[in-house]
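Example for tutorial group B:
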């Protein structure tokens, strides 16, 4: 990236933070274009299904077969940049096929056995396993709210891949479960990967 459209660079403390690139800047548009035209990181192993009506065990088995890669070890130090949507009404569209990780998940079927999530439903608060939370989210007829922040990894081979970030694991899983082509995010933390992984 060359000249960056940045925010909060007026104070010395801000220099320790990664530069912020807005999606309507030339650099931001270049990154968005790269995302939209990136080949699948794993050929033929990232199917997009609609499993909303599938029996629970069938949905679980299908999700467990989808490629999953823990990206925690790839995030060393600060990200190289943060790409932010220039307008909350126009979040960044991340292709579901490029998402390989959901933070806190062991596979696309969710967290480990016995690790549940408490959510608000029409019947009040419920504590459910990850898979059931994703199934509940996936059956809603509304577009899920954008994820606050996702992680984007850029490899030397040009391929990019994503992690759901801190607050979007179950929404990401629900998007995969329901066959959504894209996941919306307000910002992306960009991490260069020193060598090709996928």
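The residue assignment follows.
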């Amino acid at each position: 990236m060359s000249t960056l459209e940045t925010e909060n660079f007026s104070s010395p403390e801000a220099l320790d933070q990664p530069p912020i690139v807005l999606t309507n800047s030339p650099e931001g548009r270049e990154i968005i274009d790269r995302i939209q035209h990136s080949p699948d990181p794993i050929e033929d192993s990232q199917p997009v299904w609609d499993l909303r009506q599938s029996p629970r065990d069938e949905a679980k088995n299908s999700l467990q077969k989808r490629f999953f890669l823990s990206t925690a070890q790839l995030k060393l130090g600060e990200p190289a940049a943060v790409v932010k949507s220039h307008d909350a009404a126009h979040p960044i569209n991340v292709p579901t096929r490029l998402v390989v990780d959901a933070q806190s998940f062991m596979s696309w079927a969710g967290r480990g056995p016995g690790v549940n999530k408490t959510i608000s439903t029409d019947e009040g608060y419920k504590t459910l396993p990850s898979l059931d939370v994703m199934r509940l989210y996936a059956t809603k007829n509304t577009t899920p709210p954008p994820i606050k922040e996702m992680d984007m990894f850029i490899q030397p081979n040009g391929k990019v891949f994503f992690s759901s970030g801190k607050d979007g694991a179950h929404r990401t899983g629900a998007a995969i479960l329901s066959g959504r082509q894209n996941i919306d995010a307000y910002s992306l933390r960009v991490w260069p990967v020193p060598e090709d992984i996928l």
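The radius of gyration is 17 Å. Compare this with the pattern of hydrophobic and polar residues in the output above.
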